[in-house]
Specification:
RNA-binding, 20 helices, alpha/beta
Length: 586
RNA sequence: GGCCCCGUAGCUCAGUUGGAUAGAGCACAGGAUUCCUAAUCCUGGGGUCGCAGGUUCAAAUCCUGCCGGGGUCACCA
């Protein structure tokens, strides 16, 4: 239960009742009435701005509305206080029993706690991420986008959205030709020829050596004595297939498995781009024009003003119209990507989310413009830009040179710190902020390391539950048994505070999903867990607060219910992050 | 030069889509362990929310203009 949503509905019901009694004008717009946690915990459990939002349209003073509304809210079940404060806030305090009921809810729901129907019925959502060139293994720069996309998708699913995850394979460009040629060199090498240095512009990576060898093993020297036109298609297809297999393997190692892989090449071959061109032309959204060279900076050496087919992106908010064809007559990447997004629209997706690297920032407006155009405004595209990740080692920046071939692959990173650490830490910043990723700090076991901090709390919960089962005979610590505990024994403010954080989980899920901000889950977990560690340590000063009370089975049972619930909510959050909660730390 | 992102405590960052007296961690100063893992916790100081206007009951948040950092700018993806 999203308790804030629950009380929002109550507040609106009371407003309508007031209108019916003539205490408020009828037909007021309640869409801006919000129910939120107060900024200050001392203000209560939930707060509403209703009186302030309604004051103007109702032609009344906020405090007058607030007084009446507060009286009505006080009469509700579970509300123990309703105070008017500040310019017209109404602060509610809720009964302990309400919080105990939330604990029951958690025990009953298990890790599904926080699942909601928030996004149900809003249409199909497509999340596209990674979408790297199949020209080599994924490297660290892809890690952030992969995690952000994957966790966003999991988050949206938890919030009830109908989600499909997708990888758009950029297998149609010139880079793929270069890749095939590079693989051909390795093929010659595998046949025993001396190929010398890999020429500039080719892919020098060693990962192509096994590809060349595989072809040599399979086909012998049959490609050695034919024209490039003959061998190129085979090498292109074979190598791309190999690279994609590796990409999928690397993603799987990160815990990422996408539902749909769309090939740019196949899209083009199927005539999808021609279709887009035709449709847009018919709607007069394409014309032949000449672009101006960029101002401020000297234009590229080979710049020449030439007429080309332009999409009227400016009609949809872009800064300039964008070219659809290259000088050799083939489609631009953009043209193909329009077809990609139209294809998604045709497959029924009205909400699309693309995860891009920050270097594609300049591409955002045109892609949004294109989606608006091809869907005639019926589909929405949100683009999340992931800023750069700077790899560090114990505080020192790690300089990576792609030319020297010593760039760090995604696989290297996973092997070094583990997939769960990569996944969690990538979400400890909002995606549009740059971040540092320190290989040493990532595996440190200290308060500074949020992954550890959260895992430690979960392990502590499990540890207490194990100890309780051992030390108190006859104590059943299964969730089912604990659901029968007398929770009214949980009365300490510190205990209730922890339960309140747990009860905020469903709202966190809804809000993070709506905002498309998966990092909020990591921050929530940090908050939750710090509440748990704090309560744990209160037992140092006050032994009466320890979870385990050897001489009081009833209290222990109630506290075990709380500990079990804590572990459950942590696990529920880690599930969204795709991180496995640990039973113990070693 | 255009566009996009960022600018919040000494440092690293949150800030619930416009709410009340702006919050954490690190660092600094002090304190807690006969105990379920002290791998943790508690207390304290520390701020012109880059600057200046504007919008309104209310702005770190929205608008405009500057300043600083990063990214990007036909035909690559």
């Amino acid at each position: 239960m999203n308790l804030f949503q629950h009380f929002q509905a109550e507040v609106i019901r009371q407003i309508e009742a007031m209108a019916a009694e003539g205490a408020l004008p009828g037909g007021l717009d309640t869409s801006r009435v919000g129910v939120e946690p107060p900024r200050e915990a001392s203000h209560g459990d939930v707060t509403t701005n209703a009186a302030m939002v309604l004051a103007k349209p109702a032609g009344m003073k906020p405090r007058d509305i607030a007084e009446t509304l507060a009286d009505r809210l006080l009469a509700l079940d579970d509300v123990t206080a309703a105070e008017v404060a500040g310019p017209g806030f109404i602060n509610l305090r809720l009964a302990d029993g309400f919080w105990h009921a939330r604990l029951m809810e958690i025990l009953a729901a298990g890790r599904a706690y926080g699942d909601s129907d928030f996004g149900a019925g809003t249409g199909k959502v497509n999340v596209e991420y990674v979408s790297a060139n199949p020209t080599g293994p994924l490297h660290v720069a892809h890690a952030r986008g992969a995690v952000v996309g994957d966790v966003l998708a999991r988050l949206l699913k938890k919030a009830g959205y109908d989600v499909t995850t997708e990888y758009y394979i950029n297998d149609a460009g010139a880079q793929v030709e270069v890749l095939a040629t590079s693989a051909y060199l390795r093929y010659c090498q595998a046949l025993g020829e001396d190929i010398g240095e890999i020429p500039d512009g080719m892919y020098p990576g060693e990962y192509l050596i096994p590809v060349g060898k595989a072809i040599a093993d399979a086909d012998g020297d049959k490609w050695r004595h034919v024209d490039e036109d003959t061998w190129l298609p085979h090498f292109r297809e074979f190598t791309v297939r190999e690279m994609m297999a590796q990409v999928r393997e690397d993603l799987a190692a990160l815990g990422v498995e996408q539902d749909v892989f769309t090939s740019e090449k196949e899209l083009v071959a199927a005539g999808a781009v021609d279709g887009v061109y035709k449709t847009l032309s018919e709607r007069d959204l394409i014309y032949t024009g000449v672009l101006e060279p960029p101002k401020g900076k000297p234009p590229p050496d080979d710049w020449e003003p030439r007429p080309q087919a332009l999409f009227r992106a400016t009609q949809f908010g872009d800064d300039v119209d964008r070219p659809l064809k290259k000088s050799d007559g083939s489609w631009t990447y953009f043209a193909n990507d329009i077809a990609n997004h139209l294809d998604k629209y045709k497959r029924g997706f009205t909400q699309m989310i693309d995860i891009f690297g920050a270097d594609h920032g300049g591409y955002v407006k045109r892609m949004k413009a294109a989606v608006t155009a091809v869907s005639e405004g019926k589909a929405e595209l949100d683009i999340k830009l992931c800023q750069m990740v700077h790899l560090m080692k114990d505080g020192e920046p790690m300089r990576m040179s792609k030319r020297a071939g010593n760039f760090v692959t995604l696989r290297d990173l996973i092997d070094e710190v583990g997939k769960d650490v990569v996944r969690f830490l990538m979400l400890t910043r909002k995606s549009d902020s740059q971040m540092e990723f320190d290989l040493v700090k990532a595996v440190e076991q200290s308060r500074e390391n949020p992954v550890f901090y959260v895992q430690y709390a979960h392990a502590r919960c499990r540890s207490v539950l194990r100890s309780a089962a051992e030390e108190i005979s006859g104590l059943d610590t299964s969730a089912e048994a604990l659901a029968g505990a007398d929770l009214s024994l949980l009365t300490d403010p510190a205990e209730l505070d922890l339960i309140k954080v747990m009860a905020a989980w469903p709202r966190t899920v809804d809000q993070a999903a709506e905002a498309h901000e998966p990092h909020r889950i990591a921050f929530y977990l940090n908050d939750l867990v710090s509440g748990f560690h704090a309560l744990w340590n209160k037992g140092n000063d006050d032994t009466g607060l320890r979870f385990l009370q050897a001489d009081n089975a009833d209290v222990t049972r109630a506290r075990m219910a709380m500990v079990q619930a804590t572990a459950t909510v942590i696990a529920s959050g880690l599930d969204v992050l795709g991180v496995v909660p640990v039973e113990e730390l070693r």
